[in-house]
Amino acid sequence: MAVLLETEKLxxxxxxxxxxxxxxxxxxxxATGKTIVQVPLxxxxxxxxxxxxxxxxxxxxxxxxxxxxxxxxYRVGYLLKERKERLAQLLTQENGKVIEEAxxxxxxxxxxxxxxxxxxxxxxxxxxxxxLKDKFxxxxxxxxxxxxxxxxxxxxxxxxxxxxxxxxxAGNAVVWKPATETPIMAYELAKIFxxxxxPKGVVNVVFGSGRTVGNAMVxxxxxxxxxxxxxxxxxxxxxxECGRQLKKVSLEMGGxxxxxxxxxxxxxxxxxxxxxxxxxxxxxxxxxxxxVIVHETVKGALEERLRSAMEKLTIGDGLDESIKxxxxxxxxxxxxxxxxxxIGKNEGANLxxxxxxxxxxxxxxxxxxxPTLFTDVxxxxxxxxxxxFGPVVSLIPVKSFEEAIEVNNSVEYGLSSSIYTNDIxxxxxxxxxxxxxxxxxxAGTTGAEIHLPFGGTxxxxxxxxxxxxxxxxVFTEWKAVYVDYSGKxxxxxxxxx
Length: 497
Fold this sequence. Notes:
Elements: E1 12-14, E2 17-19, E3 24-28, E4 35-40, H1 44-61, H2 66-82, H3 84-95, H4 99-118, E5 126-128, E6 135-143, E7 146-150, H5 158-169, E8 173-177, H6 184-196, E9 203-205, H7 210-219, E10 225-229, H8 232-244, E11 248-252, E12 257-261, H9 267-279, E13 289-295, H10 299-310, H11 331-347, E14 350-353, E15 357-358, E16 368-369, E17 372-375, E18 392-398, H12 401-408, E19 413-414, E20 416-420, H13 424-433, E21 438-441, E22 457-458, E23 476-484
Parallel strand pairs: 7-8, 7-10, 8-9, 10-11, 12-13, 12-20, 13-18, 17-18, 20-21
Antiparallel strand pairs: 1-2, 3-4, 5-6, 6-23, 14-17, 15-16, 19-22
Helix pairs in contact: 1-7, 2-4, 2-6, 3-4, 4-5, 9-10
């Protein structure tokens, strides 16, 4: 039996208190279409209250020694570990991803808690020789203040931990707007922060739409950082407004990721990687493989293996351990995928597998789409250029390694890429020449680990990274400190002997 939420209506979490909101909307299980909870639709006044609480709490929190701040994250990590199965089942119900993926996502949060807690005893700056006698020079990290994080529905707990944990350990306070499609993970994580002893006001959760709550956060003068994961169009608008305010902004947006399969590749291994990357989370990942760039000499063999493997995929409610592909998040997502299927057909791509909605029977009133394979796709086609965000893969034949690299780099995004080859010279050329922020060799386009930077180039982002120590750069300012113990005025560059 599935784990049940103990409440029928969620509340905002502001200044350590649960604050009810009258205006609410239903949250649907995408596997069944059933309502599982009501989510608040807050107005801008709740953002004002959350920011005021965060601003007040941050002044005290910044004075807590970083190793003590880290102790709270350690406790958060242990609580996440203790509640892992419960969280995974709730995540599957609100998001639809299959249960093994949900467990993996919760594990990302656990890993991030322990990793960022470790930074509480590092947060390294630098000491350098000063150019003048009897003078000391160093740099150190300082918290920015109040941080606003806006997270998507496809990884409702993992991405939130990528952003909130480094912000917290660095001495900031957080105002968090989760996606209204998947609010349960935010509710559960807020309860964990509370149980771990995080002081009131250090983390605040405000549920609501991006148009209302998200916009109020971006506009608020006391939020000095916006960390956003979501669509390219929304990210561009956020960047423009933050630029006008001289506010720090970190963007992680779309992807149009490719697996390159060379003529010397292990095809069976490549098929496994493509299947996992393309159809895991039903293709609803920013790192999902939506293009396969294949050498023409092995194209036919790869197609045959892929079709055979796709026919064995089980599709249904992710709470069933035997299911490998879950539902699409909602009707809007389903409609977008169906529209791209028609675009692909009209462009002249050859539809080999799938291309249709799954209805009735075990799929009931859920939002399901058959795993789909196009072939004979040209690199300039829209289905090979635009993010579909569904279980749709396009095979693009090429004649050489050099052409494969060129096709990979021909899209506006630059998040993840992969190459399957046994040629070590190609491996090193590929990791140099592929223009994405993440590169895999003999693996699919997904599987990032939390201790390395996550993010991409070009239209995928604006140069910042989630995860790894690089995430700390988003939530800290560098401060240079000079201590002159000469007892006299010394002028840099002027009084150098």
